Amino acid sequence: MRRAAKVDANQRYIVEALRALGASVELLHAVGKGCPDLLVGYGGVNYLLEVKDGSKVPSAQKLTEDQVIWHERWRGRAAVVNNVQAALQAIGALRGTIS
To answer: Coil, strand, or helix at residue 3?
Structure first.
């Protein structure tokens, strides 16, 4: 039996910042099987974001085995973020970033 999906403590702040920017955000953390936590629509482009808690030590921010497999197989836009700035960079909302 699958356990309830764990939500990182900073996910709420990242979602709020993205929505304040005008992005649409769909929560996917309950999907499981390595699927990223957020589907973000911004500037006509969809992004998948895996949220990790940036306040934790780096070893606690590692991708799970399922997440590693998912990211290796995905052929679209997906990023791992650990704070609001990283999320904004991932969707190209900050200058000098690759979206």
So the answer is: coil
